[in-house]
Design brief:
75% of the residues lie in helices and 0% in strands. The protein has 207 residues and is an all-alpha fold. Helix 5 packs parallel to helix 8, helix 5 packs antiparallel against helix 9 and helix 8 (153-172) runs antiparallel to helix 9 (180-202). It is elongated. The termini are far apart. The mean pLDDT is 92.
Length: 207
Amino acid sequence: MGIKERREREKSYVKTTIMNIVRNIVATQGWSGVTIRKIAEEIEYSPPIIYEHFESKEAILTELKREGYSKLLKIYEKIFKSETDPVEAMISIGIEAYDFAIVQLGYSKALLGLDGIPATDDSTIQEWNDMTALLGEVVSKAIGLQPHQNFDLHQAVILYRCMLRGILSIYILGRAQDDKETVHRLIRSGLKNLVDGWKVQLQGQGF
């Protein structure tokens, strides 16, 4: 391995270590607990080393959100491609969103805008749009939407995301105390009702 390759490898290692520390701090202390000095202390480097990788605390937040979106998108795409029942695919995505959020609190708090974190900003608009596009396909297949039918798919995706966001936020913040199976049933019931309601809207428009 040459000097250049070794340096790139070390740089990647430090960046990964920084993000691991940030996720842990966000998960346990919230965004207010994240400071450049604290990260430097945890990683046992000086603050200037942190600034070599991220120009600001906001840049770290952007990276955290991008990582979270990337991981979720891969999970959702895998479900969408492998699940033969489109309604079940939509429900399974909701359930996986909850499971991911509970295990990966650092990512979920960042993406949901909890503990003082801005939920949306222009820095991750592309990731947001990519997720919206995929969920649009998920909803469209779940309700059997045809090109000639009059249906606001964009609003449906917003409603889908809002339902999941509300459920995830309540449980992450500890406003409700239920076991995983109970939450899974809640998500399944809520999303099934959404799909059934949308299908009723499409009735009479012809297929």
